[in-house]
Every structure is written in structure tokens, then in C-alpha cells.
């Protein structure tokens, strides 16, 4: 009996019932057999550790401990060596050992050997489900899997960065003297006078109506650049003076008037000349960029405007709405090149004059409205045209340009969103319309506009490009002033 | 428990030809998925067999679709028309129309009504038994998203307005709110426990809000950033296009134009997991009713200034999720 006692005290592995001489070796065994990541072979310390590793590093879910008995595969139980084994399993094991000793003597050892023989083949490199579950193992594995809740929480590795609440919670009511950019997160950024509608109970940021309206206005304008909190801009510091000296009529004025003018770059003349109706989304600063069309409409509305989805119906309403947008929305969204083809509308509307040259044709009608809108862009594109040495097309263009837009009722107004085959056009257009946006991305500054736009046009590299840079310079102005 | 041997994810065969606007699982099983697309079609997939079960079309691109029950779907889109389709008889019925495109459709079992939200700034309620218009309720602006919370209807519109209605009494607006996020509202989904909703914006941010207007409850609301990728020193911030709740655990998945799906535990404020990056934007996601499967619609959404060329292909992935990925720790 004394001998048996000794045996009982041997450490054993909960996952595979194997016994070891020493707990150190047991731990080594567990790390190698049960807690090893099948993808990168990293040895973790516990089941939950392994599962979190796989989830976070490889984005794979592991639901079972590798090489474990089917009843002992729970990955949520935290076991390290002999620590953490559910007490009932400990008892069970003890009982079993005693039974074994009394009964079939060596079977335990045989099983262990069995295990040893099989586990290497079943492969540390294999995904967990591969493990042989049923084995020839102990016929009566301990009943009752411990509930998942037993898993201790303390040792979990840190979770991926999680961003704590941003706006409201930060704002103690008594934070008066804080720099006003702290007020920003709660401020309605681009709502004009319409303002907040309902009560936002408990939202301090909404509630604390600015003591100094001008400061609020500044905050509004500032946040647009500091919104993401990437870095505080110099503007912010000047804004923080705001509350003390509300004598920045320029700032408050600009913020109020421009409302949706991106950034604090109120000096961008062109954005002021935008039709007021277009709401742009605020830009977020130089170090970050929202991947979204600039106009504040949903992606679906934006997409619905693509020529591809147009039907030849006299839809005056959307056209009217789109008109200003077409101007300001950058239209930068040239649709993919295949568009002209699936667009029967265009073809129909201009089909009369030129049916023979399908290739350049679709480009023509969409250019026209733009030129009508931006006479300044015209000479440039004319230059471009001549570069193209396509006299016939020239002729068409000449023919079409004077043509009043009424030629194409409604839809053509929205056409500018069509593919822009002309880099120079884009350059011009960009220069005219959206300095703030372009100017903001340093990465784009060095590039010629065509390249920046990612247009792979045969003419992109040619001389027609050079009208670009001069147009860009004014863009840089607000930033490097 | 699902067998983990059939590894967790597969692609639907014969996906729509154009952008996918919404995916929705059927009400009772995780077998059927309703997919609507910009190629004008609404398709019913059998995801067990990975086949197309049924397909019908609209005249214009189709935006939302929803199940009323296992055999009826409602759909609408740019053609402004609400259609009902009966899968048993394979017949379609035009129920009614809006003045502008229909952006979202929900079915409320509580009051047995179909609700449609449109860019014409109204929500209309329809009786699916008679296919009649029950009511027309004007909203502050174009409806972008809406979600049901028991008898409550939460409507998110352009310019960050949020209206909360009570379906039992649509005579007045129960709450007029404004999004606590600074940017355009992209998606709203209500907690299955009906306490509140989650709202996402185009600026990689998600807000957790509570319907109870008491100060206690409102203190608990918060927002967090997500779906942002830092590349070459510039942080790219992506729209969070879709949210879907796990019906059992009150955890939710968000999907963005960055091509990632994240699953969040909003009570412990933890991210439970992130899937691998998909090849393009994710336009819509949906948990099955039993929470074992997540449908993920990948299609390019023209967020970028220069559209990709060639356009990435449109795909629907079905991913079987485990408790580990969806259950609060």
C-alpha cells in the first residue's frame, strides 16, 4: 500500500492522463503537446493562452486542446502542470489509479506508452481536430466537464488595443478652462443652425452649451483637424486662447459661415466658392484620411449616381440635387474604365452625331458640362486635345462645347462623374475645386496630379501633365504658409 | 457544437454580378440567406447545399431585402418599388412605392408589419397580409438605416439624426436624437436585449447608446474607434458599413471598408476577435438566428477617389463562428 501512495503522488497530465516523474517534465510535456500553436509552433503556457494566441495572431479559432482526450479537450480551462485541475477530476484520477492498482496492474503504463507512441505521429504540426480522440484510452474518463466559467481570468494575455470612450465621458462638467478642443467630440460638426434636435440627456458634451459661443465655433472648426487626436495642431493652441479672448472674428466667422468647410483652412478660396448646398465631410487632419467620397452623402447614393446605374428616365429631382455636387464632389471618382460601354444612356444621347467612333465618344459628352461649369479648365483641356492630334474628335468637341446643356436633359448634369480620360482635365479640375483635400496629403503632393489620381492613362507621362503643378501650388499654400 | 473539421469558412457559389447591398439570414434557420445586389437581383441561397434556391429581379439596383417569414421576402431599391415575393408559389407582388429609392426594409413580428425607409425622408408601414399601406411617417432627412428593438423603431438619417418611434403608436416621435458621432451615420442595429443600439459612422467609429433616457443609463454610453489602418504614416479611416448582433450573447460584429470583421463585447468593452482581411470592402454582414454562422458580403463600394481597376469581385462568405469568438469572456 505504501507503494501505491507513492504512485498516486506522481504528477499527471489532465489532458492525456499521462503520468510524469516530475512536474517540471509534465509542464514541458504540456507545452510541447498541448499548448503548442499548430501554425507557428510557439509554445504557450495554458489552453486559454493558446486559444487567444491563435485568435489574435492567426485569426483562427481553436476549440479543442491539441492531442487531448475527447473529454478533456476543453480549451477554456486554465491548467498549468498540476495546477488548475478540477478537484473532481483529481479525485476521479486517484480513484482510477487505485482501481488500476487493484485490478489490471500495468494497463495504466500501457496506456501511457500508447499515448507516447501515438502522439508524435498525430503531429504537433497538425491542426487540433486531428488528434485521436477516442483512443484506446481509459474506458471511463471522468464525467462532467467542468463548466467553462471555471476558467480563471487573471492570466489572460492583454487584449488588443481597445479604445476607450471618446467624447462625452471625458468631459467632466467642471472642466471649464480646458482647452476647447476637448469640447469638440460632442459638438455637432457640420450641422448648421439646424443644430441638435432633441434632448441628449446625460450627454454632457451636448449639454454644456458653450459659455463662449465663439470658442465653440472655433472648437468646431478645430476639431475637424484634431478630431482623431492624432496630434494637436498649432491651431488648437490658439483655439485654447479662444475662451479667454473671444476676439477671433475670423475664426468664428469662418467656422460659422463655412460650416462644413473642411479643416481650418478657411483661406481656401475655392472651397468658399463652392455652391453652399453641398455638404462635405470634414477632413480629419494631415495624418489621417477618411476613405469616403468627399461629399456628405451615403456610399449608396454616391454609387447610385454612377452613370452605370442610370436609366433613361427624366429624373429631374436627383439631377437638380446633383448639380452642385457634381461641381464640388470631386468627381474624382472617375468610374472604372469599363463604364462607358455598359452605359446605354450616354450612347443614346449622343448617338446621332457620331456612331462610328465609339471609343472617344463617351468621353465627349461628359467633358462638356464640366467645361461649361469651369471655363478656366477649358483652355487646358483644349491644349490637351491638340496633343491628342485627333482632329476629328476636335471637331466634335468644338461642335459640342457651345451646345447648351439642354441638349441632354437632366442626366448630363450628373455626367461629370464619368470616367475622366484626361489627366490634365483632372489636374485642372482638382486645382479648381478641391485644394484642401489634396493639399492635406503630403504623400500626394510630390506627385503629378495624374499620378496622384492613379490614372493610368497613356498621356499621363507626357507634356500635358505640366499644367498640373502650377495648379497644385495654391493648394499647398494654406498648409505651408 | 459544430464540427470544426470543415474549416470555418466558405464562399457562396454563383455570387451576384454586381455589388452586394445586403445579406440577411432567414428567421428560423441558418440554411437560407437572402442576398440583394446592385445587379438588380434578389437571390435566395441555400447555404447548406451552397446553391441558388430562388432568384428574382427588380428594374433597378436592389438595396435592401428582408424576410417576413420563411417563405416571403420583401425587397426594394432604386426603383422605389416595394415587392413581395412568395418562395412557395414563386410569384412576386408589387406592394407599393416610395418617392425615392428604398434604403432599408425591416419586418416587425411584434406588430406584424413591414417597414420601409427611403431617401424620400419617410418611413412607411405596410400590412403584409393585405399588402396595404398602413402609415407614412416623415423623418428628418433621407433614411440611411433603421433597426427594430421590440416595438421601438430606431431610424438613422442623413445629417446624423436619429429618431426613435414606438410602433404601437406612430402618432408621435418618441425620441429625437442626434448621433453622438461627428460623422455621417452608416448603420444602426439594436441590442437583442432591447436596451439600446449600436451606431456606426463613416469615420471608423462605433457608438453604443441606450434608449433609456435616464441619466444613469446615459452615463453608460460610449464610443470607440475601429476599422482604421495605418499605412505609410497615414491613418486610413474606413466607413463602418455594417453591424450585426449575435442574438444570444448581445455581442456584435462590425464590418468596414477596410475589409475586416471585428466582433465586440460591448459590456466588457473588449474586442473578442478579428477575422482575416477580406479582399475588399465589406458591405453587409448578418448573423444567423442561432448565432452559429455569419454571412459576410464583400464588394467594392467606391469609397476611394479612384475606383479600383479591375473592380474586385463580389463574394459572399459564410463563416461558422465559435463561442470563443462570439461569447463574452
From TrEMBL, chain A:
It is found in: Nucleus. InterPro entries: Znf_BED, Znf_C2H2_type. Residues 333-343 have a biased composition (Pro residues). Signal peptide: none annotated. One of its GO terms (molecular function) is zinc ion binding. Residues 110-119, 253-271, 318-332 have a biased composition (Low complexity). Residues 6-65 form the BED-type domain. Keywords: Metal-binding, Nucleus, Zinc, Zinc-finger. The keyword Hydrolase does not apply. Residues 92-153, 253-278, 310-346 are annotated as: Disordered. GO terms for cellular component: nucleus. This is BED-type domain-containing protein.
TrEMBL record, chain B:
Keywords: Cell cycle, Cell division, Centromere, Chromosome, Chromosome partition, Kinetochore, Meiosis, Mitosis, Nucleus, Repeat, WD repeat. It holds the Pfam family WD40. One of its GO terms (cellular component) is nucleus. SMART domains: WD40. The keyword Cell wall biogenesis/degradation does not apply. GO terms for biological process: cell division; chromosome segregation; meiotic cell cycle. WD repeats lie at residues 95-136, 240-265. Its main location: nucleus. It is found in: Chromosome, Centromere, Kinetochore; Nucleus. InterPro entries: WD40/YVTN_repeat-like_dom_sf (IPR015943), WD40_PAC1 (IPR020472), WD40_repeat_dom_sf (IPR036322), WD40_rpt (IPR001680). Gene3D superfamilies: YVTN repeat-like/Quinoprotein amine dehydrogenase. It comes from the Eukaryota. Belongs to the WD repeat BUB3 family. This is Mitotic checkpoint protein BUB3.
Amino acid at each position: 500500500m505504501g507503494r501505491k501512495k507513492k504512485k498516486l503522488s506522481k504528477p499527471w497530465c489532465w489532458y492525456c492522463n499521462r503520468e510524469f516523474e516530475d512536474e517540471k517534465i509534465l509542464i514541458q510535456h504540456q507545452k510541447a503537446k498541448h499548448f503548442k500553436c499548430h501554425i507557428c509552433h510557439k509554445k504557450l503556457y495554458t489552453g486559454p493562452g493558446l486559444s487567444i494566441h491563435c485568435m489574435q495572431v492567426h485569426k483562427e479559432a481553436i476549440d479543442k486542446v491539441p492531442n487531448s482526450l475527447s473529454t478533456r479537450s476543453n480549451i477554456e480551462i486554465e491548467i498549468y502542470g498540476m495546477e488548475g485541475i478540477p478537484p473532481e477530476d483529481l479525485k476521479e484520477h486517484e480513484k482510477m489509479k487505485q482501481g488500476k492498482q487493484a485490478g489490471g496492474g500495468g494497463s495504466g503504463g500501457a496506456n501511457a506508452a500508447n499515448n507516447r507512441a501515438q502522439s508524435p505521429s498525430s503531429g504537433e504540426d497538425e491542426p487540433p481536430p486531428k488528434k485521436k480522440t477516442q483512443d484506446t484510452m481509459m474506458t471511463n474518463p471522468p464525467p462532467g466537464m467542468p463548466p467553462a466559467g471555471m476558467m480563471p481570468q487573471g492570466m489572460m494575455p492583454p487584449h488588443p488595443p481597445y479604445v476607450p470612450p471618446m467624447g462625452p465621458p471625458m468631459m467632466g462638467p467642471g472642466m471649464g478652462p480646458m482647452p476647447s478642443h476637448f469640447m469638440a467630440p460632442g459638438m455637432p460638426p457640420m450641422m448648421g443652425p439646424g443644430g441638435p434636435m432633441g434632448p441628449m440627456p446625460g450627454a454632457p458634451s451636448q449639454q454644456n452649451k458653450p459659455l463662449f459661443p465663439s470658442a465653440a465655433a472655433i472648437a468646431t472648426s478645430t476639431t475637424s483637424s484634431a478630431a482623431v487626436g492624432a496630434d494637436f495642431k498649432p491651431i488648437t493652441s490658439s483655439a485654447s486662447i479662444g475662451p479667454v479672448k473671444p476676439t477671433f472674428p475670423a475664426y468664428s466667422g469662418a467656422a460659422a459661415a463655412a460650416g462644413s468647410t473642411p479643416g481650418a483652412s478657411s483661406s481656401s478660396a475655392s472651397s468658399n466658392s463652392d455652391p453652399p448646398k453641398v455638404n462635405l465631410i470634414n477632413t480629419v487632419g494631415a495624418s489621417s484620411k477618411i476613405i469616403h467620397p468627399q461629399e456628405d452623402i451615403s456610399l449608396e447614393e454616391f454609387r447610385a449616381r454612377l452613370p452605370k446605374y442610370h436609366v433613361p428616365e427624366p429624373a429631374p429631382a436627383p439631377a437638380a440635387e446633383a448639380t452642385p455636387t457634381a461641381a464640388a464632389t470631386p468627381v474624382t471618382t472617375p468610374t472604372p474604365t469599363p463604364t462607358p460601354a455598359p452605359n446605354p444612356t450616354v450612347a443614346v444621347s449622343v448617338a446621332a452625331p457620331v456612331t462610328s467612333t465609339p471609343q472617344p465618344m463617351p468621353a465627349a459628352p461628359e467633358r462638356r458640362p464640366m467645361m461649361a461649369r469651369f471655363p478656366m479648365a477649358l483652355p487646358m483641356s483644349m491644349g490637351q486635345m491638340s496633343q491628342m492630334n485627333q482632329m476629328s474628335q476636335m471637331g466634335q468637341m468644338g461642335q459640342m462645347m457651345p451646345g447648351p446643356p439642354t441638349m441632354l436633359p437632366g442626366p448630363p448634369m450628373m455626367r461629370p462623374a464619368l470616367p475622366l480620360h484626361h489627366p490634365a482635365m483632372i489636374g485642372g479640375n482638382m486645382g479648381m475645386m478641391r485644394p484642401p483635400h489634396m493639399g492635406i496629403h503630403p504623400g500626394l503632393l510630390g506627385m503629378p496630379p495624374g499620378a496622384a489620381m492613379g490614372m493610368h492613362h497613356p498621356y499621363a507621362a507626357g507634356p500635358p501633365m505640366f499644367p498640373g503643378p502650377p495648379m497644385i501650388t495654391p493648394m499647398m499654400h494654406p498648409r505651408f504658409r | 457544437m459544430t464540427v470544426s473539421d470543415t474549416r470555418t469558412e466558405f464562399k457562396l457559389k454563383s455570387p451576384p454580378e454586381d455589388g452586394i447591398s445586403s445579406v440577411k439570414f432567414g428567421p428560423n434557420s441558418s440554411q437560407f440567406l437572402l442576398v440583394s445586389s446592385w445587379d438588380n437581383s434578389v437571390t435566395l441561397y441555400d447555404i447548406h447545399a451552397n446553391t441558388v434556391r430562388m432568384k428574382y429581379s427588380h428594374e433597378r439596383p436592389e438595396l435592401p431585402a428582408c424576410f417576413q417569414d420563411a417563405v416571403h421576402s420583401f425587397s426594394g431599391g432604386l426603383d422605389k418599388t416595394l415587392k413581395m415575393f412568395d418562395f412557395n408559389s414563386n410569384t412576386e407582388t408589387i406592394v407599393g412605392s416610395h418617392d425615392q429609392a428604398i434604403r432599408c426594409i425591416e419586418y416587425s413580428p411584434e406588430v406584424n408589419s413591414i417597414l420601409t425607409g427611403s431617401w424620400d425622408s419617410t418611413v412607411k408601414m405596410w400590412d403584409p397580409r393585405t399588402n396595404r399601406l398602413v402609415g407614412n411617417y416623415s423623418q428628418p432627412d433621407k433614411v440611411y438605416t433603421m433597426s427594430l428593438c421590440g416595438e421601438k423603431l430606431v431610424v438613422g438619417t442623413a445629417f446624423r439624426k436619429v429618431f426613435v418611434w414606438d410602433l404601437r403608436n406612430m402618432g408621435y416621435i418618441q425620441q429625437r436624437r442626434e448621433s453622438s458621432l461627428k460623422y455621417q451615420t452608416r448603420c444602426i442595429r439594436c441590442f437583442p436585449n432591447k436596451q439600446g443600439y449600436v451606431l456606426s459612422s463613416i469615420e471608423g467609429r462605433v457608438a453604443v447608446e441606450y434608449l433609456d433616457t435616464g441619466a444613469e443609463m446615459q452615463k453608460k454610453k460610449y464610443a470607440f474607434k475601429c476599422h482604421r489602418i495605418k499605412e505609410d504614416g497615414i491613418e486610413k479611416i474606413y466607413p463602418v458599413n455594417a453591424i450585426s448582433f449575435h442574438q444570444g450573447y448581445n455581442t456584435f460584429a462590425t464590418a468596414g471598408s477596410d475589409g475586416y470583421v471585428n466582433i465586440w463585447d460591448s459590456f466588457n468593452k473588449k474586442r473578442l476577435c478579428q477575422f482575416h482581411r477580406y479582399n475588399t470592402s465589406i458591405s453587409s454582414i448578418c448573423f444567423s438566428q442561432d448565432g452559429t454562422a455569419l454571412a459576410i458580403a464583400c464588394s467594392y463600394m467606391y469609397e476611394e477617389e479612384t475606383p479600383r481597376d479591375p473592380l474586385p469581385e463580389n463574394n459572399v462568405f459564410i463563416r461558422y463562428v465559435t463561442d470563443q469568438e462570439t461569447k463574452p469572456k
